[in-house]
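Discussion board: Methods & Data

I've been asked by a reviewer to show the raw model output for two of the constructs in my manuscript, not just the figures. I'm not sure how much to include, so I'm pasting the format here to get opinions. Each protein appears as its amino acid sequence followed by a line of discrete structure tokens. Is this the kind of thing reviewers expect to see in a supplement, or should I convert it first? Here is construct A:
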Amino acid sequence: MDKPPSHRLVAGILALGLTSVLPSQTQACGYDMLVGDPFALAWPGTLDIAIATAGAISAKTIDPIPALTGGEGFVRAQQWLLQLKDQLQRADQPGGFSILLVDSGLWSKMRGKEVLLLQLHSPSPTPRDRVVLVSEAGLNALLTRQISVDQALRLGVLSLPQDPDHQLGPHLRQALAPTDADSSKTG
């Protein structure tokens, strides 16, 4: 007569099944300290953004940012992405895109139309997803209005490689447009 499977065997099978499924649901990034070189997770064009960012910092077009790793770096990136989400929301601009911070390899998704949701540590986008590639210094420069979206695109610190309807650029321009407070700082 066959013995019923033991609870340990069932638990082991479940654990094995979960470990084979979970890695595809999330992706490690440089902040996790599990990835030695975030460019190993690279999306086409990320190295170009990193090189362009170094050039823009060297030319003093954008400000350098302190290097932060681990939890501190993740918190800073989260704050920038939340700020971007808030600015898109205030400008009544939709989400519906993935964003990669190329320095760390952190993928996030901005979802929704009337109410935007930010999903950090999201899986890589599908070929049909709209994609934003940006460096951390580039995102900081955009959020502080040091440069415009058009300047960031020209400098190469921002790229929109997957934007089939060409709406992502206008949405970002609207959300990150200089405000009256920004123009009073320079005038």
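Construct B, same format:
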Amino acid sequence: MTHHASFTESFPFGLVGIFVLAYLSSLTSTKPIYMDIFYFILYMITSRIWGGYVNWTSWVIFAVTSGVMTFFTAFLRATFTKPENNQHQK
């Protein structure tokens, strides 16, 4: 008999969380640089918790992964932001 993973084990909650975080942050009027710093710190903490720690190279991998995830989340935030909410300085 084969074992099938349950819904809670196989659902990509991390990916859904990124989309939800990007959408919710698009509703705020916070400067994008502050949100990027928040994303990076949040992803570093979660990478540390779930990724484990072996030696100093773990922090390098966490930083690279957090940087990529921050870029992706910032891109989604910009995509979700309505054009009339963008503040263009002339």
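Answer (T.O., handling editor elsewhere):
This is acceptable in a supplement if you add a one-line summary per construct. For B, something like: The radius of gyration is 16 Å.
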